[in-house]
Structure formats: C-alpha cells, structure tokens
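To whoever picks this up:

The nightly regression suite flagged Polyisoprenoid-binding protein as changed. Nothing in the input moved, so I suspect the structure step. Input below, exactly as stored in the fixture:
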Amino acid sequence: MKLSGLIAAVAGVLMAGSAFAADAYDIDPAHAWVGFKTNHAGWAHAHGAFKTVSGSISFDKEDVTKSSVEITIDASSIDTNDDKRNTHLKSPDFLNAEEFPQITFKSTAIEKTGDKTAKVTGDLTLLGTSKPVTLDVTWNGESPLPWDANTIKTGFSATGSFNGVDFGITKMADFGLGPDIALDIDVEAVKK
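Regenerated output under the current build:
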C-alpha cells in the first residue's frame, strides 16, 4: 500500500471514530417533565408544567462539551391545575400560543462542572424572542429497560431561570407574577 493510501485510511478511521463518539437519543414524551414556578404577589409560588415535550440529545460521555440538546414544547400544553387560568396563559396576554405555538431550547455551549454535572447554555425561544439561558444539568445515568434489554435509556435533570418580561410576557406584573420564572426539568431519552 502506498504511503498516501495508508495516511488516508488512518485519517478515515480517526475521523469515523470521532464522528461516532456521541450517542443519539430521542426524548421520550411520556417521560419528560418541564415544570416551572413564579412568584405570585409574595403569597406563594404559582406552579405549572407543559404536558407535550419532544426533542433530541447528542450525548458524548467522553467529552460532554461536544454534546447537544434540542427541546420543543407545545405552548398550548400548559397546565396550572386550573382550566380558566390555563386558557388565559395561552392568550396574547402571556404565551400567545396561537401565534407562537412552540417554545424551543437549543444548546449552544456545554461546560462540564463535575463527574455527572454541567452547565448547558442555549437559546430559549419564547414568543418569537430568542435569548440565552443557562441550565444546571445532572446526568442521572443510563441502562437498558428491565423488561427490554435492547432499549437503552438515559436520563437528565435540569434547573434554571429566566425573566419572563425579557421574552415579552409584559402582563406578568399586572397579575402579581414574576418577573423571574424558575424551571425544573426531568427527561428520559431513548438511544437510537
């Protein structure tokens, strides 16, 4: 074999190895919880969650900085344990879910902070406005399903916060809310 052929073969193996370092996962919609809470006039924190969540994760266990995540949330799936309040939150006063049906998060940088922890910064898009938000993320582990060894799941927990007014939810103060919205996220994802 010529030297140039050998170099090309070695380069191909190295590039293939690095290209496959990250594993691909789909977020399991039945095991994805995106919860939030915000101050309600100093009386308590108003809580809610989104029931329809999907997305994908590229997870490089050897170098988490090369990982990525994309999450899509159906804005109209908001649930705050009160139908009247849910309807109001979907209106133009808050999420304007008809005009902006999706809330998305796409990672832009990941900083490892511990053996199983990282800061994941990404663009949160809400009401057509995109701004960076940083989440503190913990990898909870990975294993096959107890009843199906061919299906591998991994799981993550994350917390973070953002200012709702910065994203255009200008009516928050009129109802004694916020302005900060705290996030509490848990997702399980299935390896492709």
